[in-house]
Amino acid sequence: MSTLLKSAKSIVPLMDRVLVQRIKAQAKTASGLYLPEKNVEKLNQAEVVAIGPGFTDANGNKVVPQVKVGDQVLIPQFGGSTIKLSNDDEVILFRDADILAKIAKN
């Protein structure tokens, strides 16, 4: 039996891991219609919730994650470790190298 975590703040990523929370797609169309939950697509965009301290490479150089908390990123469709939270939310843990891109804020 697994115990659900209360919030993402209780998860501390290690090494080069990045904890993200998927951005929810709009359930309302531009014309004002509400879509059923099963018809709303999952976006491949997420917000960084926490990052690990990085790791030391084979040459002894410190390698830190390329993103910071609050960044919006593009994540792969599959992969990562999904963690369910008690409030029906979920967060996903990726390696820094698995993050596809950082989304620039305009």
Automatic annotation (TrEMBL):
UniProt xrefs under SMART domains = Cpn10
Gene3D superfamilies, A to Z? GroES chaperonin
The cross-references to PROSITE patterns, in alphabetical order and at most eight, read: CHAPERONINS_CPN10 (PS00681)
Keywords of the record, alphabetical order, are:
Chaperone
InterPro entries under this entry? Answer: Chaperonin_GroES, Chaperonin_GroES_sf, Chaprnonin_Cpn10_CS, GroES-like_sf
Q: Identify the GO cellular component terms for this protein.
A: mitochondrial matrix
> Which sequence ranges form a coiled-coil region, renumbered to this chain?
none
Pfam families reported in the protein's UniProt record: Cpn10 (PF00166)
SUPFAM superfamilies with a match to the protein in the record: GroES-like
Task: Name any one GO molecular function.
Answer: protein-folding chaperone binding
Please list every transmembrane segment annotated in the UniProt record, as residue ranges: none
Concerning its family, UniProt says: Belongs to the GroES chaperonin family.
What role is this protein assigned?
Eukaryotic CPN10 homolog which is essential for mitochondrial protein biogenesis, together with CPN60. Binds to CPN60 in the presence of Mg-ATP and suppresses the ATPase activity of the latter.
Protein name according to UniProt: HSP10-like protein
